[in-house]
TrEMBL record:
SUPFAM superfamilies: PLP-dependent transferases. Keywords: Aminotransferase, Pyridoxal phosphate, Transferase. One of its GO terms (molecular function) is transaminase activity. Belongs to the class-III pyridoxal-phosphate-dependent aminotransferase family. The keyword Iron does not apply. This is Aspartate aminotransferase family protein. It comes from the Bacteria. PANTHER family: GLUTAMATE-1-SEMIALDEHYDE 2,1-AMINOMUTASE (PTHR43713), GLUTAMATE-1-SEMIALDEHYDE 2,1-AMINOMUTASE 1, CHLOROPLASTIC-RELATED (PTHR43713:SF3). Signal peptide: none annotated. Its cofactor is pyridoxal 5'-phosphate. It comes from Phenylobacterium conjunctum. InterPro entries: Aminotrans_3, PyrdxlP-dep_Trfase, PyrdxlP-dep_Trfase_major, PyrdxlP-dep_Trfase_small. The keyword Transferase applies. The lineage of its organism: Bacteria, Pseudomonadati, Pseudomonadota, Alphaproteobacteria, Caulobacterales.
Length: 447
């Protein structure tokens, strides 16, 4: 049996087992372009979207009444589990008392303190999404340094952020393929280098025109690519020497530990961004800066003069978001929760390594705290150019649909698996068993 035959069989099985989702998808197509409120919802490996009914901890139940072990967790917003009772109670109370004042509430004082204590940066601002926060920090970095260029790593994703929608093509910065309605040439003001390539990084900083390097501490949007030993020290040293700000986007690497990757590894960014999980699924993000940078921002503002900054949106920092962030930081994202996530992720990584050994696959497992990635290459690639070769779209589609049909959800596009504090060992074992079955099926195909 070839891979497309396996896919056809799994596609038929999905249709037979999800009649309500399939029917809703047909109805939704009449009123939502692409059949769902956001087109990514149609980008899963299933032939049509699974319509979710509810989430309970690390489980998701769909409109057909089928239950899944959810290792996608909304692609991170629900990393600490769906339907957190403390967040639900705080949000309900806030909604009853009004959520949108464009004024701070008392929660703001508490949240600011909790963020500073946890992540180590003293001064904060709120945004609605991580995309939104990244746009703000890029603008500020350019304002402060009076430099035009942003440097990112090949394979990066920082959200709906124009400046970052670039890639390396034949060694040069290029616009990503497929961008819709893009009229600005980002290659004029964004430079891209391979991750883990300090020679290229130093050369790209050398002209002295780079306002900031914007990076995830571990690349998590092109498979998962770990920094090589010494990379972060060198990144900090080189950015400082070049007068370039360092922005670390911890939206995904918040999986590393209670203080993010920066605290777990003693990093010292000038700016820090985190979104998605920080408000337990309610849209919110925050960004923090050092005291020194904050003073430079004041100076830049004074230099620019009065008027409209062009940074900010109406709903940023709203009372509902602040109530949710406070509850997440104080009651949900605890050391005990992280200890459970860490133990579960270790179990998952060990289980997947066992599958690889048992089935004789040339794959590997990469992990950053509670985030585990199964990579179709061994050893795991050190940059995006190598990783792209491993991201076989047919193999990904087949694995993902295989897992869906066996009651397991993992995030689309690559093999990211998130372990929440609510993820049971039995759920982890079911995922490992399903991947094992897939590995065995692949062996049969090859036979
Ligand atoms: N930063 C990183 C590292 C991300 O992975 C993402 C989304 N995957 C974002 C920012 C953007 O988040 P959002 O789509 O919630 O704005």
């Amino acid at each position: 049996m070839r891979l497309d035959a396996l896919l056809a069989r799994e596609t038929a099985r999905f249709g037979a087992e999800h009649p309500r989702s399939v029917a809703m998808a047909a109805e939704a197509s009449a009123v939502w372009r692409g059949g769902a409120p956001m087109h990514w919802m149609g980008d899963w490996a299933s032939p049509s979207p699974i319509f979710a009914e509810r989430g309970e901890g690390a489980r998701l139940i769909d409109v057909d009444g089928r239950a899944y072990d959810d290792f996608c967790l909304g692609d991170t917003p629900s990393m600490f589990g769906h339907g957190q009772p403390a967040v639900a109670a705080a949000a309900a109370q806030r909604l009853n008392q009004g959520a949108g004042f464009m004024l701070p509430t008392a929660d703001a004082v508490t949240v600011g303190r909790l963020l500073a204590e946890r992540f180590g940066l003293p001064l904060w601002q709120a945004a609605v999404t991580a995309s939104d926060a990244n746009r703000a920090v890029i603008r500020w970095a350019r304002a402060v340094t009076e430099r035009p260029v942003i440097l990112v790593f090949d394979g990066c994703y920082h959200g709906m952020v124009e400046d970052c929608l670039v890639t390396l093509k034949d060694g040069a910065t290029a616009m990503k393929a497929g961008l819709v309605g893009q009229v600005h040439d980002m290659t004029a003001t964004t430079r891209v280098v391979p991750f883990n390539d300090l020679v290229a990084l130093e050369a790209a900083l050398e002209p002295g025109d780079v306002a900031a390097v914007l990076a995830e501490p571990v690349m998590t949007n092109c498979g998962m690519i770990l920094p090589e030993p010494g990379f972060h020290d060198a990144l900090r040293r080189l950015t400082r020497a070049a007068g370039t700000l360092l922005i670390l986007d911890e939206t995904h690497t918040l999986s590393s530990g209670s203080g993010g990757y920066v605290r777990a590894h003693g990093l010292a960014p000038d700016m820090f961004v985190v979104g998605k999980a920080i408000a337990g699924g309610i849209p919110a993000a925050v960004w923090g800066v050092t005291a020194e940078l904050s003073a430079r921002m004041d100076a830049a503002q004074a230099r620019i003069g009065p008027g409209q900054s062009g940074i900010g949106t109406t709903l940023a920092g709203n009372a509902l978001a602040l109530a949710a962030i406070k509850t997440m930081l104080a009651e949900v994202m605890t050391e005990a929760a992280y200890a459970r996530m860490e133990a579960g992720a270790e179990r998952l990584a060990a289980g997947l390594s066992g599958v690889i050994a048992r089935q004789g696959l040339a794959w590997s497992v990469v992990r950053v705290g509670a985030r585990v990635e199964l990579v179709f290459a061994d050893p795991a690639p050190k940059n995006a150019a190598e990783m792209r070769k491993a991201l076989d779209p047919d193999l990904l589609a087949a694995l993902h649909l295989w897992l869906i049909n066996r009651g397991v959800l993992i995030a689309p596009f690559h093999n990211m698996m998130l372990v929440s504090p609510d993820t049971a060992d039995a759920a982890i074992d079911r995922l490992v068993e399903a991947v094992d079955g897939f590995g065995a099926a692949l062996k049969d195909l090859a036979a």
